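User: I've been going back and forth on whether these two constructs are worth ordering. Before I decide, could you fold them both?

Assistant: Sure. I'll take them in the order you sent them. The first construct and its structure tokens:
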Amino acid sequence: MTKQELFNLSNNRFEAEKILKQSFGFDNFYDEQWRAIQRLLRGERILLIERTGFGKSLCYQFPAILFDGLTIIFSPLVALMRDQVKSLNQKGINARCINYEQSKEENEEALKLALTGKLKILYIAPERQENTEWLESVREMKLSMVVIDEAHTISVWGHDFRPAFKRIINLVKLLPIDTPVLATTATATLRTQKDIETQMGVGVKTIRGNLLRENFKLYVIETNSEDEKLIWIAKYVNKLSGTGLIYTGTRVDAEVYSRWLEFVGVNAIGYHAGLDSDSRKEIEKGLMDNKYKCIVSTNALGMGIDKSDIRFIIHTQIPQSPIHYYQEIGSAGRDGLTSHLILFFNSQLDSNNDYIDSELPKAFIETAKPNIETYQKVIDILKEEMLRESDILRKANIKQQIFRVIKADLIEQGIIKEMQLGRSKYYMYQPNAPELDTTKFEELKQFKLDEFNSMIDYVFTKQARMKFLCNYLGDEFSDNIKSGCDNTSEKKLTPIEDYQLREKLKEFHETYFPTIKCVQRYNNIIDGVAASYYGVSNVGATIHRCKYENGGDFPDFLVKQTLKAYRKKFGNKHIDFVMFVPPSISGTLVENFAKKIAQILDIPFSYAVEKIKETEPQKRFRNSYLKRDNVKDSFTINNTDVTDKTILLIDDIYDSGATLKEIGKILTKAGALEIVPLVIAKTVGSDND
């Protein structure tokens, strides 16, 4: 359509709804949907703040099919873009997406279609803004509209700010002023709203709707331990109607809770960002098809799933703010039917007189911005020479995610700049750069801590819980609350004592063993097993005492626990040799432990693996580059013949797995048929590196 035709249509809702019926199958727009669409058809810039399930996607999909060009939708929710592309294509609307879960060929094909004008809608993950090919291609596209979905991610005051997303605004600023731009979110405080408006430029109009969810039943259960949470869920989750989500604070918890529920016969499965793409897609499809009673997940799942009948959401860990909580429970009850929202909170106090369940969210807040010394370390390194990211990680000994936060802040403050040289990005210190300004960092950290304190207030509030959330979000429509909660019309929920489940839980703790990921190309090492997690039992404390406090050999209970793990995972596998990982500092601890295992299993013990280069303890290194560098070429195989042999390789702790993989590579070259890793404990953060 021409601009004049679009303007005329914006004044004719009847004609627009005829097109809506033909293209999308809906009879009419909500009034606020039509208000947003009218303005977009007229080329305006809109910030739309509406509750989850309102139908925000239609506000950009409908104008997109009318515009003479391409609409780009930036979205951090890969599952959502996948669902919407599928739905649009089924309606005959040519849409594609570009994201990290797709193959290089799929992304290249989508980009080609966009460049040749064969797409109406392109969904793209905002991180692609850092991709050189994308930056060059977008200049050649015929853009008719830009959409920023989950727009709170571009604001430092938003609950899910991501530095890379601010680059979307750089594109918006290059567009002609009459190019329509839509930013959408379900969760923006007034402060976040004003920041987004400022970033979008002059002339932005905000439409803020009613955030009230009257079909919600909200509860808080105060507990005294993690076990009480596990027992309550095992007892009652099957009694909740329909299917639902259980949110955990970490990947480890997602795994533990899902395995526990499977153990007691609940049809549950775990989901987190550490799973491969195919597994995530299969679980998402299972959720859509009601294959499971519940999905146990980190917040990697939920907001991007277009499922209208999620009947319950349980949080085992308190979120960082009321905004996080509103966002995450927003996936429930989009069909308007009753849904139950349950938040567990361990109200016991720790040694610092703080609530036990405050530890994790406060740790996330504290580490969201690295300490000032780390910023200065990066600055000093780049003062010396221009470097690639991998070189900076090695020199600074920091995690990749930490560097990317620092990088975004230093670029924004004009201290460093990013340069593309050939196929690589380099970072260089700016001549006459200003001093690092830390004022905003401290202000932001205090803001986040204040937000978390408000979440604690939600736990203990006596007012209607939905009113509390709406008031916090700046909703003007929350005076006449009708949704129920345990402070109004609903019964209070409390922990329960169930002897049978208590015994069942004890049995679970003694028989649940984490998998350790070791599989690599050109390496005959397989995925192994750990007897426990390092940080969630007395196993970690025992290992620490033996290694660092002269506590003697690892005690027999660790031998028994590790043998249980071995027998459950590999009990039917033939093993030719037991070998151990030569240590950096712990003397004969691992050697003696492996000997005990070999003796009990009656398998020959071998000293075939020898260390030929001194290494540092792996825990000193903060990224996988340095961990791999530390152990590279540090081992050899003596004159033991391992050809076609299956080897049980034993170590005490699994972190990145770099040491096991390096020895696996050496054994593979020596002719080993299979290397089977067995460790006492897996570190809690080992899958996140």
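The second construct, handled the same way:
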Amino acid sequence: MTIRKKITLFFIMVIVLVLLALLVTVYNYRAFRINRDLQDIIHRSIHELDNTALLLDEMLVSPNERVRMQLRMQEDSFRSSQSFIRLSAYRDIFPLVQPLVEKRKDFLTLLESFFLLLDRDESESAVLEQTASMLFVISHEMKTNMSVLHTQIQNRIARDNLIFVVSSLVPLLALTILLIGTLIWIRRGFLSRILRMDQLAGCIAHGDHCGVLPVDADDELSGLARSFNVMNEAVHEQMENLAAERDKFSTILASIGDAVVAVDTENRIMIMNPVAERLTGWKFSEAGGHYIHEVVRLFTAGTREPLKNPLQHVLDTGMPFEFPEHTVLISRSGVEYLVQDSASPVQSRSGTIAGAVLVFRDITEQAQMQEAMAQNEKMMSVGGLAAGIVQEIQCPLSDLVRNIESIEGRLLGTDEGNLSAAEKSGTTIESVADYLRESGSHGLIAAIRDGAVWIMRILDKMLMFTGMKSNSKELVDISMLLDNAVELSRSDYELKNTIDFRKIILVRDYEKHMPQVLCDSSGMQQVFLNILRNAFQVMYVAQTDPPRLLLRISHDEERRSACIEIADNGPGMDEGVRKRVFEPFYTTREHGEGSGLGLSIAYFIVTDTHGGSIEVRSAPGAGTRFSIYLPVEPAEQ
């Protein structure tokens, strides 16, 4: 039987029992009304009879006109009373009603005779007394009958109440049994199956699709359980397909080399791949639900102004957006990346914009590589030009130095040839020497010689700059070279006369057990001297207080190189100056105060002679840091 039929049968039985209870109630209510009506009639009749008997007794004791009139009025009331008329309707139910009605008639007849005797003024006659006695006897009999009748009515009321209670309890008991049976059926055959279905729905919600609802009856719940099982299998299959697609999507997203961040229409992050996590410094578990500008902080490289949210432009216009060049991403930890970005809208099936996706890549190394390549090309071209100039100048300059040295030897030398030539000329070598000293010609010749030698040294540096001249390489302790360069810079004549080295805070951070480096010790010492000299001069000019210099040596496992860092807390430099810092003859100092070759020579010594690299990081007000990477060779080599 189906649940619908069972419920219909249940309601029919309930209605029948309710109707039966109503029928019993109506029937018993009718009997209750009859009994109450009888009680009221008896009470009224007894009251009227008592009033008549009292007046009659008063009339016999002290007859007067007032009592007579009251008795006459009571007789009229008793005669016209509806109580006995109504009581006559119940003569079939109570046998005492008929005698009571007959006695009432006798009482009224005798009462009329009593009044006639009074009218004849026979108040003291024996007939009057006999009539009064009979009236009292009939009154007493009527009261006795009414008392018996009242008792019968009370018994009837008790019996009817008992019948009402019993007749009411039967349908109520049946209804209670029906309800209890229905509740048991609902609990066992209906609610338990619903609870089982709810439990299985909870398991499905938590990803457990192994449960199956039993189908052991031919009713609606069994049909629902059958449909639920089919739905569970379909959902399980769809979830497996969705999980496979999600895994595929996650694999693809994780394998993308660019950072990908997707947002909804409110600019809240929905998706981040591992590259985006690495560049922003945020885990997706932390960034999910945050606004995009809180996680992806973009700035213009030159001005350091925050870049306006590009995704909002994409969401508003529905058009892709290309980021401007030189966009900087600052991660959560403060690390800066030069990025190349683009943003595109994400459309739903209906064509509406459901969000946007931001794709960006780290081009810091690429930009540095391009910058280094441009710098190398520039330096190579300048180096080739310098090498040609050096070769053109070096030969005549060497002849000039030799000729000057020969002139000094002939003017001041004491060999026989010079002495013989002086005698032939009518003078002596001492006189020529005195003349040169007195006229200052000797100092001029020495200045010419020193200037030519100084030019020769510059040419040697330029040859080193072009890579055409290098000293032999050997395994050295790089920390010792750096310390020697610091001591040499302290004894530099120009620096010693302008800078108070006692005020400079020097911090050394050398990694222990550093491997030795195969390098040209004199060339690398020149590199360190050039960088240190620039740092000291910049901090002196900017009046940095207190000046601070950091020297750090570490082993870069990834590059397999020794990393030498020299950092100052000077005024720093902007992006334009930083890009040109290694250009030959480029200087920010006033004209005549620097040649602009120091860092250029350092660049060539590191990159060309040693196969390393040199980088500079700086920002206005943030100091300058030079990082030199030299390949580390095993000690056996």
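Notes on the second construct follow. The radius of gyration is 64 Å. The first strand starts at residue 259 and ends at 263.
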